[in-house]
Amino acid sequence: MIQAIIEQLTDFCDCLPDELTEEGAEELIARNIKEMIQLVSILTCWTNEPCETLLNSERREVIDVNAINPCDCKGGVMDFVPFYSPFDAGSFKVYLATLNGVHEEIEELDADSYSFVSSFNVLKIDVAKYIKQDLCSCCPPQRKLVIAYDAGYDLLPDCLLPLFCDLLHVIYDKNKCDCKACVACDKGNTEGEIDYNDEVSPKIGDYLNSLIKNIYTDQLGIVSLCGCDKPLWGIVT
């Protein structure tokens, strides 16, 4: 996936630093692109798991089964709206997790117990046959539904490529600013010296934040999950 994104960016961006495009620079550009994607993923609330990004991967959400009433008009059929988008409608798998004492038992629901309804953009899940036998119990077992599905981007959205090209330049400049890149000054020679206490002195971190917040906020909103409502019963894991 990263290789495809490298090709996408090198084809789109007019002028990348020579070090990122020369032969043998695959590891360097891949490292910078991964850092860039991680940064954007954090800013757009895709990182609910460590190192999770907006790239396509399996996501999981958890629902408390005891919150579902099999005797209402829906007869135990619930509507599940995925938190992550875009998602692969053919990738859904649903599991029933039951706490038996101190042990957890996992059972995959039959494929005919759930289906994605594209017209309503929801996953319909029929849990009636899995929970009706517990209705007369004064202490129903603790059960949860675990919905797994693939969601995210295989490539960077075309409309965000200008943003990613700009960010790639900034992140590359940040990463190459090490001690070896600094030019030593002769003692007593202050020509060209930069006053880093000067409020107007450019700083890469400040520039990066300004670039994202002031210029690309609306564009990032296209992929952002920040502020999106969680499912009614679900917990994103």
Can you offer a commentary on this structure?
The chain is of the alpha+beta class. It folds into two domains: 2-55 and 154-182 and 205-220, no CATH class; 58-151. 29% of the residues lie in helices and 20% in strands. A five-stranded antiparallel beta sheet has the order 4-3-7-1-8, with no helix packed on it. Strands 2-6-5 form a three-stranded antiparallel beta sheet, with no helix packed on it. A hairpin with a 4-residue loop joins strand 5 and strand 6 (122-126). Helix 1 (2-12) crosses helix 3, helix 3 packs across helix 5 (161-175) and helix 5 packs antiparallel against helix 6. The longest helix is centred in the N-terminal third of the chain and has 18 residues, at 26-43. The protein is elongated, with a radius of gyration of 25 Å. It starts with a helix and ends with a strand. The relative contact order is 0.20. Residues 194-201 have low confidence and may be disordered.
Reported for the largest beta sheet, the result is: 5 strands, antiparallel
Strand order of the largest sheet: 4-3-7-1-8
Mean pLDDT: 80
Structural class from helices and strands? alpha+beta
N-to-C order of helices and strands: HHHEEEEEEHEHHHE
Tertiary shape:
elongated
Number of helices: 7
Q: Would you identify the regions where 5 or more consecutive residues have pLDDT less than 50?
A: 194-201
Please state the CA-atom Rg, rounded to the nearest Å: 25 Å
Fill in the keyword field for this structure:
single chain, 237 residues, alpha+beta, 2 domains, five-stranded antiparallel beta sheet, three-stranded antiparallel beta sheet, 7 helices, 8 strands, elongated
